[in-house]
Amino acid sequence: MLWKIPGPQRVKHFIWVIIKKRLLTNSERVRRGIAQDATCHLCGHIKEDTLHVLRDCPFAREIWHNIIPANHLGSFFFEWLFSNLQFFSTNKLGDSSWACLFWDHSLAHMEES
User: Fold this and answer.
1) Rounded mean pLDDT for each run of 10 residues along the chain, 113 residues in total
2) Residue 105 in contact with residue 63, Cβ under 8 Å?
3) What is the pTM of this model?
4) Exposure of 101 by Cβ count < 10 A (0-12 exposed, 13-18 middle, 19+ buried)?
5) Phi, psi for residue 35 in degrees, rounded to 5
6) For the chain, which residues make up each domain, given as ranges?
7) Which one-letter DSSP state was computed for residue 41?
8) What is d(CA 42, CA 111) in angstroms, rounded to the nearest whole number?
9) Which of 46, 69, 85, 105 could share a disulfide with 7, CB 3.0–4.6 Å?
């Protein structure tokens, strides 16, 4: 059903990765037996899962707060998803992949450490 929704393939793929719990977080690496530490290496939280990476990590929150006006934070995800899948919106995120945003931000903070 996701694949039939009109919209950018990369957005649909990213949503699919999240729905299928395939985002390679540290807790997922531990579950797969390819790592022993589920801790978030950016903030030290004990379990880096999908929600932590996308929403709860202070570094992720900082990104969201820099991109989204404070009065839209509560409803942003659904509005963003709808506009990207239905209308190819040119909002502040544009066509950027969330993964690229988090990766760039993570690397910047790792280099500062």
Assistant:
1) 84 88 94 97 96 92 84 73 56 48 50 48
2) yes
3) 0.62
4) middle
5) -155, 165
6) 2-112
7) T
8) 11
9) 85
